Amino acid sequence: MIQIYESSDALMRAAADMFVERAGLATAESGRFAVALSGGETPKRAYELLGSSAYRERVKWDAVHVFWGDERCVPPDDPRSNYRMTRTALLDHIPIPERNIHRIFGELAPMNAASQYESELAGFFEDGPIGFDFILLGLGADGHTASLFPGTRVAGEENRLAAEVYVAKGDTWRVTLTAPVLNNAHAVAFLVSGREKAEALRDVLSGDREGNPLPAQLIKPAGSLDWLVDSQAAALLGERD
Ligand code: 6PG
After folding, report:
1. Rounded to 5 degrees, what are φ and ψ at 36?
2. Whose CA is nearest to atom 15 of ligand 1?
3. Which residue has its alpha carbon closest to ligand 1 atom 5?
4. What pLDDT is attached to residue 233?
5. Is the dihedral of CA 199, 200, 201, 204 positive or negative?
6. Please, are residues 190 and 228 in contact by the beta-carbon 8 Å criterion?
């Protein structure tokens, strides 16, 4: 479902509310909430809200297990680290046990970081299907999501749980969850903000790409798929024929 919010603030509150709702449902049902968070700039404000007094008490944090959809292959204290951004915005402000934080070891060589993360995933999901309760994703202006970038082999990876990928933009290696893992989630929400994403959002939602889908179009989860977008990002949606 596509939900358009008038402002970025309203969008971030909606994202925080959805997190709280999903966490409550999963915890009530199974006693835990396995979530994979997006990196980048967009979700930062939503994470800060979740760590604020207005939201902090609404989540049973000791039941929450935090993973990431992708990570840059940099040390955990590097300004480019998705883990560092999340720790600063959220993790340092909530009573979540350290054992519940499953970061990608960006300081390792990319292939080792990916393998280690696959082991972490397999161990947590007890060698069964990797079924996240909720995955929050962003959208790049080129239609990428997580670190599934257009034209990369990893975008079409069907067997691995996580994989390393070199991204020329920013000249970094990254580790990303693969599309099958993203698609096996119980619920997925894209969080898209800003006019610079309007073309990508229009292209992703308009569908037909003659067999050459944008990576974000590969995300068709078994469970629910929501698009939480602000009016700036939605500026061109009226153009869909
Ligand atoms: C990352 C993210 C990536 C992000 C998009 C959008 O590591 O950068 O996981 O997939 O969601 O690139 O990034 P912004 O939110 O910064 O626009």
Report:
1. -115, 125
2. 42
3. 140
4. 98
5. positive
6. yes
Task: Give the number of C-alpha atoms closer than 13 A to the C-alpha of residue 97, restricted to the C-beta side.
Answer: 8
Q: Is 143 in the pocket of ligand 1 (CB under 6 A)?
A: no
Cβ(172) to ligand 1 under 6 A? no
Tokens standing for residue 40: 């980048």
Cα separation, 201 vs 14, in Å, equals 18
Instruction: Please identify which residue in the block is written with the tokens 């909430």.
Output: 33
Question: Tokens 């951004």 sit at which residue?
Answer: 85
Q: For 57-109, where are the alpha helices, taking DSSP H only? A: 82-89
* 32 vs 24: CA distance, rounded Å: 9
Residue 86 has pLDDT above 60, yes or no: yes
CA–CA separation, 161 and 68 (whole Å): 13
Nearest in space to 134 (alpha carbons), one of 7, 36, 1, 236: 36
36 pLDDT tier (thresholds 50, 70, 90): very high
Token pair in block for residue 15: 């994202």
* Ligand 1 neighbour 70 (Cβ under 6 A): yes
Question: Average pLDDT in the 10-29 region?
Answer: 98
Q: How far apart are CA 38 and CA 19, in angstroms?
A: 12
DSSP SS3 for 241? coil
pLDDT tens digits along 186-241: 999 999 999 999 999 999 999 777 788 999 999 999 899 999 999 999 999 986 44
Backbone CA torsion sign across 16, 17, 19, 23: positive
What are the pLDDT digits (tens) for 101-118?
999 999 999 999 999 999
CA–CA dist 192, 11 (Å, integer)? 9
